[in-house]
Design goal:
Helices cover about 30% and strands about 20% of the residues. With about 280 residues, the protein is of the alpha+beta class.
Length: about 280
């Protein structure tokens, strides 16, 4: 007689390891890392969607743990957000670099004998705002450069040679059609030299501007009332590499505290403004 032994019911095993969820988590982590590196963004953009899809699929597998799948889903979403932030930061930086023009300022060159006699040193060239003064950065309204410095962009170099603060008689005598300045205003003459330092074989017309900024902060750029200046600056002729032109710009400005104003010099369309004292 054969005896059959009946054992206790088998214990049900729990959910198994979710291998697909683990793969998704590893992929998501790698994707997030690459998404933080500007030069490897494309790798992150490829890995993160893959991780997201694998994470979703892993959540629907039967008898598998869902913890790694949920973690992979969260990491892939966070990584995508980070990727967007890095992407837009890179784009913004590229646009700013493409549409900006570094401006530098160079002190006028002096003869060796003059420099030795004056005990001066050649300060060379510097980026705008790199020198601090008692009143703030050099080249600002509060701390303008003295006339004579060369203000340069990638294609242009501008030098304010001199400023005549009482030039009304000279301007009116230059052309009978020049109108007298408004009450409380006067004409000034700004003598500048502009050199084309670019390399366009077709040359370019001077893309520079000079304006007067009053002590109150108002800007006068000559558009309020145009007048022909003696030895007028030629802004319409084409200059080729190395060529320069010199002339006067007439500006109508408030006569009160005129010497306390400054000149705003812009050596190129995308260049920074640099302020120069009027005396």
């Amino acid at each position: 007689m054969t005896t059959t032994h009946t054992g206790p019911a088998a214990v049900a095993s729990g959910p198994g390891r979710n291998v697909l969820g683990l793969i998704a988590l590893i992929t998501a982590i790698l994707g997030m890392i690459f998404a933080c590196i500007p030069g490897a963004l494309i790798v992150g953009w490829v890995l993160l969607p893959i991780a997201f899809i694998l994470a979703l699929v892993s959540l629907f597998l039967r008898d598998r743990k869902r913890g790694t799948g949920i973690a992979a889903l969260i990491v892939s979403v966070v990584g995508t957000v980070i990727g967007f932030i890095v992407f837009f930061a890179v784009v913004a930086g590229s646009v700013d670099e493409a549409f900006s023009d570094d401006t530098t300022v160079s002190a006028p060159e002096a003869d060796a004998g003059d420099a030795e006699e004056a005990g001066s040193e050649d300060v060379g060239s510097e980026d705008v705002g790199s020198e601090e003064g008692a009143e703030g950065e050099q080249g600002t309204r509060a701390n303008p450069y003295a006339p004579g410095v060369e203000i340069s962009s990638s294609d242009w170099a501008v030098t304010v040679n001199s400023v005549e603060l009482d030039a009304t008689d000279a301007v009116l005598a230059e052309n009978e059609f020049n109108e007298a300045p408004e009450e409380g205003h006067t004409y000034i003459l700004v003598d500048i030299t502009v050199q084309y330092t670019g390399d366009d074989p077709e040359g370019s017309m001077p893309m520079t501007s000079v304006a007067y900024v009053s002590p109150e902060g108002n800007t006068f750029d000559g558009t309020e009332m145009s007048a022909m200046a003696p030895n007028s600056f030629d802004s319409m002729s084409t200059l080729y590499e190395g060529a320069s032109t010199t002339g006067n710009i007439a500006l109508q400005v408030p006569a009160d505290s005129i010497e306390d104003g400054t000149l705003k010099v812009t050596p190129g369309m995308l260049a920074d403004d640099v302020f120069v004292a009027v005396d």
